[in-house]
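User: Hi! I'm working on a homework problem where we have to compare a predicted structure to a textbook description. Could you give me the structure for the chain below?
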Amino acid sequence: MSDVSGASSGSSMLENDNHFFKWVDEALLEEINVLKNKMSNLEELVKEVMMERGESEKKVFEKMEMKLETELFDKMEEVLKEAKWSMKKMCAGQIGAIQLCISRALQNWDPHMRTALPAGKQDTKRIVKSGYNVLQLLSVCPVRYIVC
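Assistant: Happy to help. Predicted structure tokens:
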């Protein structure tokens, strides 16, 4: 028969409870039970920490994604502004060229509107040949007949 002492509990009774170092076995069993509880608590704590870490990493990732998106949009906006500015400059240049063509065409039709050349120089840089009307001039003038 087994002798139950005050230190041993009913659930952790050994089969051979009548040996000399019974108190050491009971102490070890109690220590194992305590460590099991600590391990389960530690496992739960690790799971919580991993979940929190995953959430914090997700937040950091979202912040970085937003930052990259704003930088990308800013750069795209800058490029778009540059393109608009170059388009405006090009349009202004074309308008200036058209004005020049029209003024030269009018000068060629009306000799009194021509500017006087210095003595001894000939007017060799004619832009529009006589006989062209203004509409024909505007259709071909912007690239081929501009002489600066």
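For your comparison, note the following. Residues 1-8, 123-133, 141-148 have pLDDT under 50 and may be disordered. The two ends are 124 Å apart (CA to CA). Good luck with the assignment!
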